[in-house]
Amino acid sequence: MAPDFHNRPILVFWETTRACLLACRHCRASAQREPFPNELSTEEGFALVDQIVEFGRPAPILILTGGDCLMRPDITELVHHARERGLHVAISPSVTPHLTDARLSSLREAGVRVASISLDGACPQTHDGIRGFDGHFDATLSAISRLREHGYKVQVNTTVMASNVEEMADVAALMRWHGVAIWEVFFLVNVGRGVETRDLSARDCEDVCHFLVDAARYGFLVRTVEAPFFRRVAAWRREGLVGSGAPPPGPLHERLRRRLLDQLGPGVMNQNTPVVATRDGSGIIFVGYNGDILPSGFLPLSLGNVRSHRLADVYQNHPILQQIRGGYFHGRCGQCDLRQICGGSRARAYAASGDVLGEDPACAYVPPLPSPAVLLRA
């Protein structure tokens, strides 16, 4: 049975802080070394956890992010409270000196089972250049190994952009070699410091999605952020429609596909891609460092604040979120027969045009194309 995203999300992201020791070129939060004023206090964090519980069962998963969530000295207390209230908790720390074995042990004992860290290139030159520190690439690979040694299920996040797209096959190989369980690929949205970073064309985004379907045959789950059109490409590939109605991929895909084969040989497993149709504000909700409620971390449109609003009430009843979940979009997204399995990136539409219901300029699909009923059920 498909989740009922009208009543509850499956993921609640809490930006516990915007403090971070890194200075990443594409940082959504424009993080700095010291906490921003007006962060939620420990007691307010406990109250936020209690609000998440109000969604009922099955309870959403709470993801503690940032900035760097390890910059909060009370992070273990927050995890303890969430686990006592019956929530599953994941963490998304930065790879800095705060990522110590002692901290990893305490969070694991508190009940965290999943941790995600970022890797934005297949070599030090690329990754360190994006992250802003020499030696960070090697530290990140070491952190993946240490997380696994502590018993965490490891997710690696990679932001794909013009400067690193040709390395994506090599990054996929690192996922396989280092035993990563989930590879989550972020498609750049020009917010925060990301406004200075060159993103991909719609044609290249389509090719990257085809490549990610290939990569999903090597033993790890492949997901995307701000690229819901990945589900369309994955469905076309799963149903064998590419070349018989759906357009074929282009030269970027061919280069990445060949490089992946060179690195790992043929993929022998079934395509491991998600089919649950989440998007900004539908299955996902984001709480900022100061309590602001946003459709997602990449969509800086405040819908209320947990200090004065109930999170469940905002998620269920805010008109913008109801329109997003209802698929009442404009432009190509509104005309698209696949909008219920995709729906476009609301964050990118908003960044590009100021219209949260507008079309996603990174999607190359021009409706209508032949869409057998099996696709609409995907």
**How does CATH name the architecture of the domain at 11-264?**
Alpha-Beta Barrel
Number of strands: 10
How large is the share of residues in beta strands?
A: 5-15%
Distance between the termini: 12 Å
Number of helices: 14
Q: What is the N-to-C succession of helices and strands?
A: EHEHEHEHHEHEHEHHEEEHHHHH
CATH top-level class of the domain at 11-264: Alpha Beta
The quaternary organization reads as single chain
Could you explain how this protein is built, in words?
By secondary structure, the chain is α/β, with parallel strands linked by helices. The chain has a domain at about 10-265: Aldolase class I (TIM Barrel), CATH 3.20.20.70. It contains 14 helices and ten strands. It has helices at about 40-55, 75-85, 100-110, 125-130, 135-150, 170-175, 200-215, 230-240, 250-265, 310-315, 320-325, 330-335, 345-355, 375, and strands spanning about 10-15, 60-65, 90, 115-120, 155-160, 180-185, 220-225, 280, 285, 295. Strands 1, 2, 3, 4, 5, 6, 7, 8, 9 and 10 form a ten-stranded mixed β-sheet that branches. α1 runs parallel beside α2 and α7 runs parallel beside α9 (about 250-265). It is globular, with a radius of gyration of 20 Å.
